[in-house]
Amino acid sequence: MNFTNLMKVAVTAILSNKSRTLLSTLGIIIGVAAVIAMMAIGEGSKKSIRTELSKMGTNLITIRPGADMRGGVRLDASAMQTLKPSDYEAILSRASLVKLVSPEVTASGQVIHGSKNTQSTIYGEMPEFLDIRLWEIKDGDSFTEDDVKRSAKVCLVGTTVVEELFGDKNYNAVGQYIRFRNIPFQIIGVLRSKGANSWGMDQDNLVVAPYTTVMKRIAAQTYLNSITASAISEEQSEAAISQITSILRETHKLGEGTPDNFTIHSQQEMMSTMDTTLTTVQTVLVVAAAFSLLVAGIGIMNIMLVSVTERTREIGLRMSVGARGRDISRQFLLESVMISLCGGFIGVLLGYGMSWAAQHMGFPAVVPLWSVVVSFGVCAFIGLVFGYIPARKAARLDPIEAIRYE
Predict the structure, then answer these.
(1) What is the CA 214 to chain-centroid distance, rounded?
(2) Contact (Cβ atoms closer than 8 angstroms) between residue 133 and residue 56
(3) What does the alpha-carbon distance between residue 287 and residue 267 come to, in Å, rounded to a whole number?
(4) Does residue 198 have a pLDDT over 80?
(5) H-helix or E-strand containing 338?
(6) Fewer CB in 10 Å around end: N or C, the chain?
(7) Could you write out the DSSP letters of every residue in 187-232?
(8) How high does pLDDT run on average in the chain?
């Protein structure tokens, strides 16, 4: 029996029991749709986080005081004061693999203008901070190194601060005065909006001022909260970290065997960690969804066994007129694979629909093409594996006994 005839017989057999065929494919449909949706949300989440992190600079390096925390152990106050302005100057002058560097001092509090106020965070920085963190100025201009030397009371503000204090995020607030912890600052620039990041944090709710101003007038401290730097290229990030580590160990006079009293992280390291975490979660979800495919395969096998029993006389007649055992086996295997692939096709469509719905509900979802190809491959495999036993049973029927079967 040629393939065309096998196809005709298989289609006729499948369509003759539409309800049973639909029920047998239901597990495949649900399993494939769940796998596609889980893969789409996982890939979309990874892409969204990569995009958000890249907005901060792909070659970003962050240096924080204190050793890396392990097991949630809280560091004492002195351990959090190990970064000094001299460390920033040493990195600036000696780190050849670092393109830009900025010390950072932060403080939280109320920003006030007239009768309006809002809670925000002020970041004390160097002008290079804007290039390191890929910030753009919408209105006005940035402060200068001369402002840093003079500890000038000037600042840049995000659009959320503008909206809260002036009623309109598009308001040109350049030249206006605000107070932070009762210290007056003149707004000389408004930052272009970045919106919320993947963790829901509003990136536009900030004030940026010369680090010397924040250190002396706001925080009243002699140490830095952190240092941000930008490697000369993304590929050189790890080498730049090694270079910075050597410089800081020397400036901190740490002997051989003494652990670092600072922590350095790169943006690439953060991306890799997030990717690994999301991939693990995604794998667990996909494996859980894939179990329904196993159950669906067992269901297809049961249906095909019932079909073999119901069509025993038909099988006997075909064998009596010349059909070979392998022809019968191919027919039932083809029916099993077709049922599985039909379920897979509907499942892919449903998975796309679920991904589209997830996008409109605010979840990032991107359906990778390879997941669709793999889904069809798995469906074909399930059809072959779970159709084998019914096909083998049909092929081994005795023609005489099969014709006599009632």
Answers:
(1) 35
(2) yes
(3) 30
(4) no
(5) helix 325-360
(6) C
(7) EEEEEPP--B-TT--BTT-EEEEEHHHIIIIII--SS-SEEEEEES
(8) 82
Number of H helices, E strands in the chain: 13, 10
Contacts of 137 (CB under 8 A, 6+ apart): 130, 156, 189, 190, 191, 192
Contact 155, 122 (CB under 8 A): yes
Identify whether the C-beta of residue 98 lies closer than 8 Å to the C-beta of residue 229: yes
> How is residue 385 written in tokens?
């594996």
How many alpha carbons fall within 13 Å on the CB side of residue 177?
A: 7
Locate tokens 């809002």: which residue? 118
Ramachandran sector of residue 263 (left: φ over 0; alpha: ψ -120 to 50; beta: rest): beta
How far is CA 86 from each of CA 61, 77, 145, 200, rounded to the nearest angstrom?
A: 18, 19, 17, 35
Domain ranges (residues) in the chain:
3-52+273-404, 83-260
Task: Record the tokens describing residue 323, joined without a space.
Answer: 């059909």
Q: Comparing 116 with 10, which gets the higher pLDDT?
A: 116
Cα–Cα dist 27/350, whole Å? 13
Q: What is the pLDDT of residue 343?
A: 85
Give the pLDDT mean for 120-131.
Answer: 93
The region that residue 146 occupies, defined by phi over 0 for left and psi between -120 and 50 for alpha, beta otherwise, is alpha
Nearest to 142 by CA among 127, 152, 129: 127
